[in-house]
Every structure is written in C-alpha cells, then in structure tokens.
C-alpha cells in the first residue's frame, strides 16, 4: 500500500478509465468476501481522492464516490448473503485458517453491542468492516434493516474517505509525508477495534482478579 501512491498514477496513465474497474473490484472484494479483510480500503479511497484532485490525471471524485459506493453496498450485500446461507458451514474448524475465529468474535461482539447501527459504524473499521455483514447474515438479521444501514454506511464511508483525499491529499505537508499519512490512516482506522479488544481484556483481568 505504501507504494500505491506511485503505482496508481502509473496505472492511470497507462490504462486511463479502466482503473475505475480495478478500484471497484478491490472495494467490492474487501467488503464482499469474508476471507479478504486485509485489503486496503480506507487508504485506497483516500489515495484515489487525492489523485482525483490533480488535473493531470483522469480520475473524477464524483465518479469515484458513485462507483465505489455501489461497490461497497454490493459487496456488503453479497457478504450478508454468504453469512445467511453458508455461515454455519464457514465457521467450522476447517475454515479457521481463512476466517479467523478471533476476528469473528470481535465482529460478533461489536454487532451485539451496537445493534443495527453496527452495519453503519463498522464501515469505518478495517477487518470489522468485512466481517460485520457476514455476522449479520449468520444472525439472520432482517434484510430490510440491513440494506438501509448498508446503503447509508457505504455512501458515508466512501464519501468521507474520497473527499478527505480530494481536499487534503495534495496539501504540501501531506504530499511530502504521504507514506506516513497512509500508515496513520491505517492505524487510526484500527484504533476502535484495538480499544474494544483492550477493554474486553481489561474486563477479563478484573474478573480473574
């Protein structure tokens, strides 16, 4: 991901608008397939937005928001259906190499604590973002409730990340330290999951004491 700020402009120069398709696939796969929670959603959206602000490149921030919002919504919908129809099989031990029980437990706890709004809030948390719709499907959440928060969350997540890159990605200090900014985005987006994990461990320590 740290090399994407050099790679993505090169791909745009070489393939032009076809890059939209590649971005669509990455966002769709990250949100839609429960075995790919490690793909760089937040930082890729921010980078795409910052490139769209440059007149030398063909990306358009409005097109990015519309197209990648559709990818995020469609991805979560697929993930929900996978959880709904195959969740009981995919949580068996033979799948634990690909679907980590620890991550599923964290997503399940997050879903339990925040209810329906977890679909929206989970969009802004890596790993949790990929597992929440799967967890909702496994728990047999009503699809009408799911799709509402799915649409709102998908549009909000993509819009915030792309527009943040569009308006702030080309500030001199950001451009100078772009790799550090990418790392910061990853760390900040992981903080909620880390805090939840630490809080749970703290409670466990208190009980044992």
UniProtKB/TrEMBL annotation:
Q: Where are the transmembrane segments?
A: 12-39, 51-74, 146-168, 180-198
Could you tell me which InterPro entries the record lists for this protein?
DedA-like (IPR032818), VTT_dom (IPR032816)
Q: Where is the VTT domain?
A: 39-166
Name the membrane topology term. Answer: Multi-pass membrane protein
Q: Give one Pfam hit by family name.
A: VTT_dom
Per UniProt, the keywords (alphabetical) are: Cell membrane, Membrane, Transmembrane, Transmembrane helix
A cellular-component GO term for this protein: plasma membrane
What compartments host this protein?
Cell membrane
Family assignment from sequence similarity: Belongs to the DedA family.
| Protein name according to UniProt | Cytochrome O ubiquinol oxidase
């Amino acid at each position: 991901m740290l090399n994407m700020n050099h790679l993505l402009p090169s791909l745009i120069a070489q393939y032009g608008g076809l890059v939209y398709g590649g971005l669509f696939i990455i966002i769709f796969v990250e949100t839609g397939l429960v075995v790919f929670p490690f793909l760089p959603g937040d930082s890729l959206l921010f980078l795409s937005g910052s490139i769209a602000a440059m007149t030398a490149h063909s990306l358009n921030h409005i097109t990015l928001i519309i197209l990648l919002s559709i990818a995020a919504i469609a991805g979560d919908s697929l993930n929900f259906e996978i959880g709904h129809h195959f969740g009981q099989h995919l949580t068996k031990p033979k799948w634990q190499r690909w679907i980590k029980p620890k991550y599923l437990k964290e997503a399940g706890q997050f879903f339990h604590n925040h209810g329906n709004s977890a679909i929206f809030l989970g969009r802004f948390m890596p790993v949790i973002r990929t597992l929440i719709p799967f967890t909702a499907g496994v728990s047999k959440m009503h699809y009408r409730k799911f799709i509402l928060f799915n649409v709102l969350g998908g549009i909000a997540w993509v819009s915030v990340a792309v527009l943040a890159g569009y308006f702030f990605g080309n500030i001199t200090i950001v451009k100078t330290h772009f790799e550090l900014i990418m790392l910061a985005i990853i760390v900040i987006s992981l903080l909620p999951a880390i805090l939840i994990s630490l809080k749970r461990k703290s409670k466990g320590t208190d009980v044992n004491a």
